[in-house]
Write a structure and sequence with these properties.
This protein is an alpha/beta fold and about 260 residues long. The protein has 11 helices and 7 strands. α7 links the parallel β6 and β7. The protein binds adenosine-5'-diphosphate (ADP) and magnesium ion. Adenosine-5'-diphosphate (ADP) binds next to α1 and α9. InterPro entries: AAA_dom, DNA_Partitioning_ATPase, P-loop_NTPase.
Length: about 260
Amino acid sequence: MRIIAIANQKGGVGKTTTTINLGAALAEHDKKVLLIDLDPQGNTSTGLGISPSSRSATSYDLLLGDVVPEPQKVGVGDRGLWIIPANTDLASADIELHAHEKRSFLLHDALRGQMLQDDRFDYVLIDCPPSLNLLTVNAMVAAHAVLVPLQAEFFALEGLSQLMMTIREVRMKANPGLRIEGIVLTMADMRNRLSQQVEADVRETLGDLVFQNVIPRNVRISEAPSFARTILDYDPSSKGSQAYRALAVEVLERHYNAGRKGAGA
Ligand code: ADP
Ligand code: MG
């Protein structure tokens, strides 16, 4: 079982899109995948058709509730996808967490307890809010690795050092084994010179941390959530589907290799 926090404090870089579609692509490999929506905006939940009225057991309960929420099966065409949705309760969680003695460890403890016993899931993907707040820290403390979507635009690298500093701090104080799963360039326009230049710069700066596969800007990807579908279900042969499938293969390979030689950041 592998827990991956999908984090970047910038909004609109493709965290939610990557959580949903990487999850669906891993499920295509017969992996059992649990998505945890840790963003109070609840876009992962909405994008998979979980209506607000059917969000009775949520990520808020996972952090601060008395009962462990039961993951919901996602009812789209994809196999092997479950979700713990978010509702608006989560908006106040950051403040409530500050008052808590184990404020950074609540998600970790919840997942290591009842929730993930007996290897129910192969992958747990946590969609983080656009902030380096306590929700994101909880995700990083609970996770084996952080996957960072980076939008292929001029300011792509801006803010990344702050994110890396948070990862270092989490390693020092709470989770020494935390790796960087990888950095994935999103919304890239490969015919555009600027996009190419950004990719070259990012690869020069970050080297092997950057996934080979790049997610292109693809309108089908942005349409899928309004039909409550993943891109793989909505348009299986689209460029977007191909890209998320290729990303899933890289993620699977990285684990295989990391398992063999302890590689990683
Ligand atoms: P975040 O979760 O980081 O805020 P989202 O995943 O919600 O970012 O993406 C922001 C917006 O960009 C959404 O409207 C989403 O549909 C769109 N989007 C994300 N990735 C792509 C892509 N590869 N091509 C086109 N649109 C995309
Ligand atoms: Mg989001």
